[in-house]
């Protein structure tokens, strides 16, 4: 094939689409070029930096005709930081792009024709994260902290992160200035030298309680009492200061050993009327405002009257399960990670639920076994990780036909794939409601319901 596009070409192109990681896509005689920073419907000038056989990459030189949704990114490190991909697109534009992404996955991958509703977005899409995990490093003898640059483990030194809490911002800045006073030299992933690996900050959205976790290579901190005092002064909402030790040469954030320096070992927070206890390593949804939106939608789609038995597959710490338990006769949650199941059980007790139980195991095995033992749920809720449902679980459900399935998904592609199998198995898919849990990123969550 004649290659029309060559490395170092300078071209003027029209941007048609956006990839899953937020790059613009233009086609030159059918040959796709990926252009970071370019937006759909723009005419841009580019410099081709890599021309592979089937596609290439280009650098954005000039935007000749900007998208009506182009804005200048408010974050000072947007160009280098890998945390956000879409700050150069207005929030309205982001929601439109996400809706289109879901619709196109439904049509292309699943041949699903159920309506895709407009994305439920946030009124204020900033400072939404209730947890920040901030790596620390040294650059020319200076302490730096922020998020990793895109596609690397180099740190984009960040003066303020506009999607994290004010609490996390303040602690990040202060620790950057003062870490060395406490012997907390930043850890270097390449050499394994240094002490301070990550600062993790969690703040309860409703409770306002803050937990500060210092992840270090060893236990050693000089003058820990003074450090505790400093943290409490900088962030008076702090109720828990914890150290986690991670000596391993790994990019996994947490190590096995955790101990409390000051205050509680957990913070509490609530979603709607339900309270949760969250410890340093517990999984908990990142965007509390939109989590409530998502769960309320799931609850509405479950259409509970108080008489139903519900199975909640991939239940994590039981957040959706307890939401459902408010309106169902009983709920059983299934989750593969044992500590998450412990959290789920504790949270059920904490909230006085006597109709919610949890089991450890793979959803596809546990639910199949339940059916074989004659347990028949009225409603099944699933919320799998990005890879979607296990084929065996779909087979089991299609064979036993619970009359209603609510599917919560963080990946439209695998959702569309799975919905095809349910529709082939006789289910009707009613509508797909996308919810924006991660403004300025390309992620989009969906919830949908099926009946038979
Ligand atoms: N529903 C929860 C968590 C969803 S995240 C919430 O809203 O907070 C997906 C969960 O599925 C994770 O907790 C993960 O540990 C779990 N998981 C992954 N594979 C699984 C499997 N095969 N069976 C059961 N749970 C699984």
From TrEMBL:
The keyword Transferase applies. Residues 4-62 form the TRAM domain. This is 23S rRNA (Uracil(1939)-C(5))-methyltransferase RlmD. Keywords: Methyltransferase, S-adenosyl-L-methionine, Transferase. It comes from Chryseomicrobium palamuruense. S-adenosyl-L-methionine binds at residues 285, 314, 335, 383. It holds the Pfam family tRNA_U5-meth_tr. GO terms for molecular function: methyltransferase activity. GO terms for biological process: methylation. Gene3D superfamilies: 2.40.50.1070, Nucleic acid-binding proteins, Vaccinia Virus protein VP39.
